[in-house]
Structure prediction request, 266 residues.
Amino acid sequence: MEQFLEILKKNHSVKSVLPSQQKVELFLDGLMSILFPTYSNKVYSTKEKLEEAIALNKSYLNLLLLHVNDLLKEDTDKITNDFYLQLASIYELLVLDAKAIEEGDPAAKSVEEVIRTYPGFYTICIYRIAHAICQLKVPFIPRILTEIAHSKTGIDIHPGAKIGSSFFIDHGTGVVIGETTVIGENVKIYQGVTLGALSVSKEMAETKRHPTIEDNVVIYAGATILGGKTIIGQNSTIGGNVWITKTVKGNSMVYHNPELIIREKK
Prediction:
């Protein structure tokens, strides 16, 4: 027991301790409320109130960065400012995502409904925030953010993935999008889709392991697309439950043709 306690003591003496879930969610919920009042019903009705809310949210992000300060290439203030300089661009992308969902789903009654209730949009929001932070070479924090979405929605998007505008995840449960995935514009993905790697070898960590999905592709439920050299060409439709490890040229339709037997019960 004494030896075990010494091991624990050594672990607890590490200078860099990751931020709590509560601190990360405080930053995330605050930022989502600033971007979309529908998300939390918080209304910042004047420019001054918005500036105050943004300043407070910047302090939350700066606090998170202090936990990994020893691993950063830039100081926390610069990274924080660089992130908020991207906020308008992130917002523009999210508006396009919300509109794509509202226009593409017959069940969606309004953009406000999409923002408030759709798990796909919630996950895309967190992904775009986490991706921007990831691009600033911040460790740990982006993964903690996307795992919040993963735990709540069942949608797992690595913050390193590159995803174009007007992205639509319908239903979403079980979707997996790997670190080196590249997705173009106007892509729609249904539940249970995996964009993964053919190999999980550690030696491939710095290579492109996940597929490229070009513009205007639809991927139906349960499809699995694997490999860094695999490209799904633009305007293609990938049917449900297919397994793809080779490139599919543009304007293709890929689907199973199983024999379906229906007979009367005796």
Notes: The longest strand covers residues 194-196.
